[in-house]
What we know:
- The chain has 301 residues and is an alpha/beta fold.
- The chain has 2 domains: 13-150, Rossmann fold (3-Layer(aba) Sandwich); 156-297, 3-Layer(bba) Sandwich (Glucose Oxidase, domain 1).
- The chain has 10 helices and 13 strands.
- The protein has helices at 25-37, 59-71, 87-90, 97-101, 113-121, 140-150, 179-185, 208-220, 223-226, 249-255, and strands spanning 13-17, 41-44, 77-80, 105-108, 126-128, 156-159, 168-178, 197-204, 229-236, 264-265, 279-281, 284-290, 293-297.
Amino acid sequence: MENEIKNLVKGDTIRIVAPAKSIDEGSVLFAKKLLEEKGFIVQISEHCLGEHHYYSGTEAERLQDFQNAVDDENVNAIICVRGGYGCVQLVDKIQWASFLRHPKWVLGFSDVTVFHQRIQKMGLQSIHSTMPLNFEQNSKESIDTMIAALQGKDYEINIARDSHNKRGECTGELVGGNLSIIYSLLGTNDQIDYSDKILFVEDLAEQLYSVDRMFYALNKAGVLDQINGLIIGGMTDLKDTAIPIGSSYQEIILSHLEYKNIPVCFNFPAGHIDDNRALIFGRKSSLEVSKNGVILNHSKQ
Length: 301
């Protein structure tokens, strides 16, 4: 699937929005300054710094901010400030017609996976990347790959081998995001076609048995039979039961892939970790998992 999204150049406009949980002003201003230093014009949406209980604003306010960013033809990219919870409340209420006519980059991770899946369903690309909440703590590579993705530059990610990896090579469109969100969208109008895809997943603060449950669901839904490769990113702060479950998360995931002849890599630098490198969802990519390490190539095919 080839997108028609305009790659950004200096002087283009990025709108910062908060479609889910509220955020502190300092993180937003830090991100604005950083992006301006990269040469972009940066706008902060009207209700971005608001607070309505858990959320950055009422559902109507958050919807208005995202819709305005989608509809404004002078906005070249939309970056979500943070995850948390809230995107699923908006996704079916957003009028996506102008986005289809004038697609633009949408960036974020975690709960923003809801938007990534909808954009994937529309046959367009999006960027799984760090967000303003994390800019100050992020690695240089996190920011550099996000800017490279925005500007349409080819790049690859090379990492060391992990003893749990399953070797192999594959190509396919890169898809995925937060495992819990992907699991929650199975069987809905936002479940994507996983045929011939490279699936990336990451998660935060889940029980080990929940990881097992979610992979059972992916398997029973046919996803694990359809994909060409699997990338496991940060599986951060996972929890075990009082009486231990008896398996690591790597062992749990591999148990669902025992008879699947696809490459699998662990400990990939993306997710709820400081080294959260950008991934272009919907981009034809290649994955090589070897005894020497892992290469994910984002070059245009």
